[in-house]
């Protein structure tokens, strides 16, 4: 079942890149007591994600944060090394690049997708959400192949 507006985000351990390598981070530490925009992509370095989705958030990061957002999170079912390299390649230092390596967070949200037919295994659907103190206040899930409702421009307009 997919998470809905008004529901609390689950507390799952994911990874981000630290100074000495990947480090565990609890999603509660990301969301509790903060206003957060999280957008998820099917895969780092993939065309739609690299050409459209992530760059929009990089360009609009200051405007999004000016609306009271504490953190902008980019999440993918990739490892922390890949997410770190992708963030650096995209100049995404204003964003938290989050690795949901086993897809546990995407699955807990009910937003996983089986991309085995494309040789990609379990992935996350493309979506964006706004959460305040760990409660979802806006959720935008893309139809297959879409990059519209979860775009930085649409999320900025929702804020």
Automatic annotation (TrEMBL):
Keywords: Antioxidant, Oxidoreductase, Peroxidase, Redox-active center. InterPro entries: PRX5-like (IPR037944), Redoxin (IPR013740), Thioredoxin-like_sf (IPR036249), Thioredoxin_domain (IPR013766). Residues 3-159 form the Thioredoxin domain. GO terms for cellular component: cytoplasm. The keyword Oxidoreductase applies. Signal peptide: none annotated. Gene3D superfamilies: Glutaredoxin. It catalyses: a hydroperoxide + 2 glutathione = an alcohol + glutathione disulfide + H2O. This is Glutathione-dependent peroxiredoxin. It comes from the Bacteria. Its EC number is 1.11.1.27. The lineage of its organism: Bacteria, Pseudomonadati, Pseudomonadota, Gammaproteobacteria, Cellvibrionales. One of its GO terms (molecular function) is thioredoxin peroxidase activity.
């Amino acid at each position: 079942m997919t998470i809905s507006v008004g529901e609390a985000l689950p507390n799952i351990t994911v990874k981000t890149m630290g100074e000495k390598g990947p480090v565990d981070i609890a999603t509660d530490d990301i969301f509790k007591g903060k206003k957060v925009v999280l957008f998820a992509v099917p895969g780092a370095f993939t065309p739609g994600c690299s050409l459209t989705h992530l760059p929009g958030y990089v360009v609009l990061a200051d405007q999004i944060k000016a609306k009271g957002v504490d953190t902008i999170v980019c999440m993918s079912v990739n490892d922390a090394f890949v997410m770190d390299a992708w963030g650096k390649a995209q100049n995404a230092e204003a964003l938290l690049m989050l690795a949901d390596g086993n897809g546990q967070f995407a699955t807990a949200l009910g937003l996983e997708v089986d991309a085995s037919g494309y040789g990609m295994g379990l992935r996350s659907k493309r979506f964006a959400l706004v959460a305040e103190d760990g409660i979802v206040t806006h959720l935008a899930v893309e139809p297959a192949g879409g990059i519209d409702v979860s775009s930085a421009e649409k999320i900025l307009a929702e804020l």
